[in-house]
């Protein structure tokens, strides 16, 4: 059930968002070791955002997962998602933060109930 929420100040108009969603979903599933069928990716563009005092391309993400997150996994996820953002949206890796949340199944709703 990993869920990755990504926000960027880059406009998504004319951008092939399907490839961003696909690459991010595949990376999250593979790195965490969860079935991709349960991975959700949310991508929001044109979000007013400043990083380091400028409005140059930047992004912020939050990844929530029921287990599977370790220091090593988080490092790999940070690199993989930063690569996607840099290649697809020209967001430099140095202008991207990613926050990780490891949660209990009872704190995550799905299918009208919880995990």
Beta-strand share of residues: 25-35%
Q: What is the highest CATH level, the class?
A: Alpha Beta
Low-confidence stretches: none
The DSSP helix count reads 2
The order of strands across the largest sheet is 2-1-3-4
- Quickly count the domains: 1
**Overall mean pLDDT:** 96
Gyration radius, in Å: 14 Å
- Give the overall shape, derived from the CA principal axes: globular
Estimate the helix proportion, in percent: 25-40%
* Main beta-sheet strand count, sense and barrel state: 4 strands, mixed
In the CATH hierarchy, the architecture is: 2-Layer Sandwich
- State the separation between the terminal residues, measured CA to CA: 9 Å
Structural class: alpha/beta
Would you give an account of this structure?
It is a single chain. By secondary structure, the protein is α/β, with parallel strands linked by helices. It has a single domain, classed as Macrophage Migration Inhibitory Factor (2-Layer Sandwich). It is 30% helix and 25% strand. The protein has helices at 17-32, 71-89; strands spanning 3-8, 40-44, 59-65, 96-102, 109-110, 113-114. The strands form 2 sheets. The protein has a 4-stranded mixed sheet, covered by helices on one side. Strand 5 and strand 6 (113-114) form a beta hairpin. Helix 1 packs antiparallel against helix 2 (71-89). The protein is globular and about 40 Å long. 26% of the residues are buried. The model has no long low-confidence stretch (mean pLDDT 96).
